[in-house]
């Protein structure tokens, strides 16, 4: 027992020491769209459906892209691309890898309207095309890769019907005050579909695949990033690099690497609690099959509402309803929610919901959600709130951004840990 405790302390000290290097933090921008809540949830369901197809086909590799840029909680980061930096406002997405921006010239259709001026490669002294025979070109999956006048090209279709295509390039990016050189990016010259209504300049993929900024930057940012997603009034922040953390107020859970789906961050969720009671669900409910890649729990900023495998969702919902027995169930008018109430949150004691994690080398972690992470308001005119969870269509689960809001999350891809710390963003 003493040896185990000493090992825990040693491992934690190694992590703490390694976190003292310089980090770059910058604000996130939260720009909800003008769609109805029901429409946003439909877009969220489209993303989950696309993830389901990708995972089922083992296609979520180094070149995986997200499904949809139009949903309830788009979080944007301002990144400088090129030399001198041209400001680009990008959707952050832990479920995809590559950083891509819309580029001049747009052909054959005009550039869509976006937040910032469209990136112009001719105005950057550090821009360089990736050749068709370049090893970097082969990081794009063969079915999406092409060649045009010796330049490496890509083409993707999102689940919402958006098509993008362009050329691969090597470019410097500026994150906060830090210049990250020689990053492989996508230079999108054609974009058609629903994406254009979002006006995002592109995507900042934060996944763990070979094309992500995290994987490409190596020791410069130490294989670590942190983020805190704000609510509708605050954007939150994103930080690259190793930062100072306290052993007293952060909890660590294990990351699990998937050979079949390397872009995603799988976490070792082992149980759920409602109102302080641990739910009676099988111990292997959230486990991932390493041979097939099936199952597991993904931490994803692009999905809004957490999806739980069917038996776990039913257990959570039924226990929550049991704790809320004095309140009548109402129709929330949103198709993915089946447990809704008319409530005054100021006078209602909402049952707590906790995620219980396994952490190799540390004490098990348990994160208790705030009321705003448990219930979401679907109609402010009637004060209608719904349990902000839904059943997963398949054997995997997703912890979405609604449940991540207000929690400082640290992804240590090198140490294979994810840290959670409750607190304002």
TrEMBL record:
Transmembrane segments: none
InterPro entries, A to Z: Aspartic_peptidase_A1, Aspartic_peptidase_AS, PEPTIDASE_A1, Peptidase_aspartic_dom_sf, TAXi_C, TAXi_N
One annotated GO biological process: proteolysis
Statement: the UniProt record of this protein carries the keyword Cell wall biogenesis/degradation: no
A molecular function (GO) term: aspartic-type endopeptidase activity
Keyword Ribonucleoprotein: no
Domain Peptidase A1: 75-421
Xref: PANTHER family: ASPARTYL PROTEASES, PROTEIN ASPARTIC PROTEASE IN GUARD CELL 2
Annotated family: Belongs to the peptidase A1 family.
Protein name: Peptidase A1 domain-containing protein
């Amino acid at each position: 027992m003493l040896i185990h405790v000493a090992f825990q302390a040693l491992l934690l000290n190694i992590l703490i020491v390694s976190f003292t290097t310089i980090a770059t933090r910058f604000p996130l921008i939260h720009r909800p769209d003008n769609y109805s809540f029901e429409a946003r949830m439909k877009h969220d369901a489209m993303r989950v459906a696309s993830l389901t197809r990708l995972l089922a086909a083992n296609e979520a590799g180094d070149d995986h892209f997200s499904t949809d840029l139009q949903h309830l909680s788009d979080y944007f980061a301002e990144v400088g691309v090129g030399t001198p930096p041209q400001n680009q406002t990008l959707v952050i997405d832990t479920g995809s890898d590559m950083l891509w921006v819309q580029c001049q010239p747009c052909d054959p259709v005009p550039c869509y309207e976006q937040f910032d001026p469209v990136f112009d490669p001719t105005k950057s002294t550090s821009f360089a095309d990736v050749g068709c025979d370049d090893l970097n070109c082969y990081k794009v999956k063969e079915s999406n890769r092409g060649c045009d006048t010796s330049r490496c090209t890509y083409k993707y279709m999102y689940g919402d019907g958006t098509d993008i295509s362009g050329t691969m390039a090597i470019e410097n990016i500026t994150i906060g005050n830090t210049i990250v050189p020689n990053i492989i990016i996508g230079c999108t010259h054609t974009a058609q579909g629903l994406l254009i209504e979002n006006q995002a300049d592109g995507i900042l993929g934060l996944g763990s695949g070979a094309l992500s900024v995290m994987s490409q930057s190596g020791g410069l940012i130490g294989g670590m990033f942190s983020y805190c997603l704000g609510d509708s009034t605050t954007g939150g922040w994103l930080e690259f690099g190793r930062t100072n953390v306290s052993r007293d107020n952060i909890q660590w859970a294990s990351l699990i690497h998937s050979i079949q789906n390397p872009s995603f961050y799988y976490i070792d969720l082992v149980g759920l609690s409602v109102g302080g009671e641990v739910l009676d669900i099988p111990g292997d409910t959230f486990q991932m099959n390493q041979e097939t890649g099936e199952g597991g729990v993904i931490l994803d900023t692009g999905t809004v509402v957490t999806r739980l495998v069917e038996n776990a969702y039913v257990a959570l919902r039924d226990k929550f309803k049991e704790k809320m027995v004095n309140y009548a169930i109402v129709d929330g008018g949103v198709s993915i929610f089946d447990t809704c109430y008319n409530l005054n949150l100021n006078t209602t004691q909402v049952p707590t919901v906790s995620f219980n994690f396994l952490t190799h080398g540390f004490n098990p972690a348990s994160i208790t959600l705030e009321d705003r992470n448990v219930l979401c308001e679907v109609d402010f005119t009637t004060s209608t709130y719904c349990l902000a969870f839904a059943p997963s269509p398949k054997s995997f689960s997703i912890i979405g951004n609604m449940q991540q809001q207000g929690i400082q999350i640290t992804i240590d891809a090198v140490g294979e840990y994810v840290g959670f710390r409750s607190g304002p963003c």
